[in-house]
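Researcher: I'd like a structural prediction for the single chain below. Treat it as a standalone chain; there are no partners to consider.
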Amino acid sequence: MDFQRNAVSVNVGFRLRELREARKISMRGLATKSGLSANALSMIERGRNSPSVSTLYKLAEALGIPITEFFGPPAVKNDVILIKADERTRIPLTRGVWEGLGGEKFSGRVEPFIMTLESGATSGQHMMIHTGDEFVLCLRGRLEYLIEKQLIELEAGDSLLFAAHHNHRWRNTGNTVTNVLIVLSGFVEGEIPHSMQLKKLE
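Model: Treating it as a single chain, here is the predicted structure.
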C-alpha cells in the first residue's frame, strides 16, 4: 500500500517563518518560548532540518496555534469530510512523514493521521501529554511506545489504546520503515485537538 502517493507536501520551514513573522515574534523570542535553540529554529526555517513530532508540538504551543496550522491557513470545519488519497496533506518530520486524514477540516473531536517512520525515528526527546484518548494501529514494521514507565512493543496488525494524559512517546525500533495509523479523540469540547502540551524529561 502506497501511503504517500501524490499527496500535497507542506514546506514546514517556510510555514513556520510565515507564522512567526505574522505574530511579530523574533527567532530569539520563539527560541525562548519554545525551549529550542535559535540555531535549531534557523535550520528548520531554512529547510536544512525537519522537526521531530515533539518539536513540532512545542513550536505550535509556543506560537499559540493548533499543529494543523502548519498544514496551511485554518480550514473551514465541516461535518462530512472526504479526503482522497492524492489530497492528503503531508508534513516532513525528522526521519519520517506525517499525513493528515482530514481532522484539520472536521468539526468533530477526532484527529486521524498516518505516519511513515524510518528505522530509528522517534517522537523526540520529550514525552507528550494531551487530553482525550489515543488509538494506535501498527500497519507495517515495528513501533515501541513508552507510556509512563510501561514499555509496549507493537508489530504489524497490533493496536494500542490509552488515555493520553499519561506521559508517552514512541520510536521505530525495527530495521524497516514503519507505517502507523494514529487517532486522537475524546477532547473536551472547544479544545483544539492538536494543541498538545509537552512535558520535558528531566
